Amino acid sequence: MANTVILGSGIVGVSIAYYLADHQPPDTIHLVDPAAELFLSGSGFAGGFLAKDWFSESVAALGALSFDEHRKLAEEEGGREKWGYAASVAFRYSRGGGENKGKVDLPGGASRNKRCNDEGQDQAPHWLRRMEGDTLYAISKRETTAQL
């Protein structure tokens, strides 16, 4: 049996190792993590957030493909009920007058805020308690982000 090396031992790497252990001997699975401190990489911030178009040009096609495949799988397999897949709108919120319009940038200098035409002002979640001077902007559209 071949050995499998998984680069990164955050939640994603550990999850892969866990499920892979159902199909091959656990002693053939090796986790490698170069970080000297825990939770500094992507998995440390992993919250089940999926985005279609938040990638640099070099990996944009792969990001879009991954997002579309997650959506397709959820549609075919009842992902909303089975694992909580849901289309979503992402917001940028600053409390107390912090100006953030245009501050969430995409590679190449484009702004997610501007891409979404400031739709967030009217889409605030009902549970979000806002105060005078707060700013809220949609930084995605429902078709381009989702949560698991």
Summarize the helices and strands and which ones pair or pack.
Elements: E1 4-7, H1 11-20, E2 29-32, E3 49-51, H2 60-77, H3 79-83, E4 86-87, E5 91-94, H4 112-115, E6 135-138, E7 145-147
Parallel strand pairs: 1-2
Antiparallel strand pairs: 3-7, 4-7, 5-6
Quick structural summary:
This protein has 4 helices and 7 strands; from the N terminus they run βαββααββαββ. It is α+β, with helices and mostly antiparallel strands. The chain has a 3-stranded antiparallel beta sheet with strand order 3-7-4, covered by helices on one side. A two-stranded parallel ribbon has the order 1-2. Strands 5-6 form a two-stranded antiparallel ribbon.
Please explain how this structure is put together.
This protein has 148 residues and is α+β, with helices and mostly antiparallel strands. It has 2 domains: 1-46, no CATH class; 48-148, no CATH class. Helix content is 25%, strand content 16%. The protein has 4 helices and 7 strands; from the N terminus they run E-H-E-E-H-H-E-E-H-E-E. The chain has helices at 11-20, 60-77, 79-83, 112-115; strands spanning 4-7, 29-32, 49-51, 86-87, 91-94, 135-138, 145-147. The strands form 3 sheets. The protein has a 3-stranded antiparallel β-sheet, covered by helices on one side. It has a two-stranded parallel sheet with strand order 1-2. Strand 1, helix 1 and strand 2 form a beta-alpha-beta unit. Residues 100-104 and 117-121 have low confidence and may be disordered.
